[in-house]
């Protein structure tokens, strides 16, 4: 993708400073969730619509009330949807909840259609079907997909604002098992590529960014760490380091050693 001068990430009609997006599930306490989001310095927070009350104003238990929604952007996700129709309903509910937080212009949706209860792998046919409908309805669609280069191109052609290939299965912490296919997706994409799911360490987040990913979305690696706040900060630094390394361009690999201070230079 072409880079803009400020190096913000552009998704749909909005730009963001941080290339790290953080999920909100699996935290042991509300305090861990709120502090981790702050430590990560992220701009986008994704929330599963199914876990939220339909009326936030009358609910005093949700952690969303502890977040500053003038600084954060809600990314509702359709997690738990087994069909395209379910995901579409969740997307519309997500917009209603965004409105309750004062984000009336927020039509973002992280599209997840997962009919497989064991491996939690996304359904490509259901995802395409839901994406096509939601794009036509004016949503900014961020689809979660297998690392399938052809599927990524089809979703981009439909008008999706990003593609979000998984590094490995959700919550597994296995890292970038699909690295070769992710690289192909990055090479061919004209929309941001966000690596989503499977990242377990900051070094893996760095690797995703070094190969040219535009951002990283993660949750379990932070929420289930021994110190979520510190891990969120580490992930932030890992994403920044990988991005800078990608922009800088790594040195060429060589088959033989090449002294950093050649003898003819020393003698002079």
Helix-strand blueprint:
Blueprint lengths: L8 E3 L2 E3 L3 E4 L6 H11 L3 E5 L24 E5 L6 H17 L7 E4 L12 H13 L3 E6 L3 H10 L5 E2 L13 H10 L5 E3 L5 H9 L4 E4 L1 H4 L4 H21 L14 H5 L1
Parallel strand pairs: 3-4, 3-10, 4-5, 6-7, 7-8, 9-10
Antiparallel strand pairs: 1-2
Helix pairs in contact: 1-8, 2-3, 3-4, 4-5, 6-8
In brief:
The chain is globular and about 75 Å long. Helix 1 packs parallel to helix 8 (about 230-250), helix 2 (about 85-100) packs across helix 3 and helix 4 packs parallel to helix 5 (about 180-190). It has about 270 residues and is α/β, with parallel strands linked by helices.
Structural class: alpha/beta
Major β-sheet annotation: 5 strands, parallel
Helix content: 25-40%
Q: Per CATH, which architecture?
A: Alpha-Beta Barrel
The number of distinct β-strands equals 10
Total domain count: 1
What's the alpha carbon Rg, rounded to whole Å? 19 Å
CATH class: Alpha Beta
**Outline:** globular
Span between N and C termini? 44 Å
Give the overall average pLDDT: 90
Task: Tell me the strand percentage band.
Answer: 5-15%
List SSEs in N-to-C order: EEEHEEHEHEHEHEHEHHH
CATH fold title = TIM Barrel
Strand order of the largest sheet: 5-4-3-10-9
Q: Find the CATH superfamily.
A: Aldolase class I
Which parts are unreliable, with pLDDT below 50 for 5 consecutive residues or more?
A: none
Describe what you observe in this structure.
This protein is an alpha/beta fold and 268 residues long. Helices cover 37% and strands 15% of the residues. It is built from 9 helices and 10 strands. The chain has helices spanning 30-40, 84-100, 124-136, 149-158, 179-188, 202-210, 220-223, 228-248, 263-267; strands spanning 9-11, 14-16, 20-23, 44-48, 73-77, 108-111, 140-145, 164-165, 194-196, 215-218. Helix 6 packs parallel to helix 8 (228-248). The model has no long low-confidence stretch (mean pLDDT 90).
């Amino acid at each position: 993708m072409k880079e803009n001068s400020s190096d913000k990430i552009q998704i749909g009609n909005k730009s963001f400073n941080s290339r790290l997006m953080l999920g909100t599930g699996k935290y042991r306490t509300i305090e861990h969730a709120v502090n981790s989001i702050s430590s990560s310095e992220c701009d986008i927070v994704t929330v599963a619509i199914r876990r939220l009350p339909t009326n936030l104003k009358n609910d005093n238990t949700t952690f969303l009330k502890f977040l500053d929604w003038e600084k954060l952007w809600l990314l509702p996700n359709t997690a738990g949807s087994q069909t395209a129709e379910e995901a579409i309903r969740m997307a519309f509910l997500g917009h209603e909840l965004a409105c309750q937080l004062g984000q009336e212009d927020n039509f973002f949706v992280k599209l997840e259609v997962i009919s497989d209860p064991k491996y939690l792998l996304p359904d490509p046919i259901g995802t395409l079907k839901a994406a096509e409908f939601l794009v036509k309805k004016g949503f900014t669609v961020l689809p979660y997909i297998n690392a399938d280069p052809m599927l990524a191109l089809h979703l981009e052609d439909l008008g999706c604002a990003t593609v979000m290939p998984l590094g490995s299965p959700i919550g597994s912490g296995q890292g970038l098992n699909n690295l070769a296919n992710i690289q192909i997706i990055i090479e061919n994409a004209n929309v941001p590529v966000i690596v989503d799911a499977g990242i377990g360490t900051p070094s893996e987040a760095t690797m995703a960014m070094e190969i040219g990913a535009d951002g990283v979305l993660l949750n379990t690696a932070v929420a289930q760490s021994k110190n979520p706040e510190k891990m969120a900060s580490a992930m932030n630094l890992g994403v920044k380091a990988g991005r800078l390394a990608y922009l800088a361009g790594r040195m060429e690999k060589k088959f033989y050693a090449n002294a950093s201070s050649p003898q003819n230079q020393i003698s002079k």
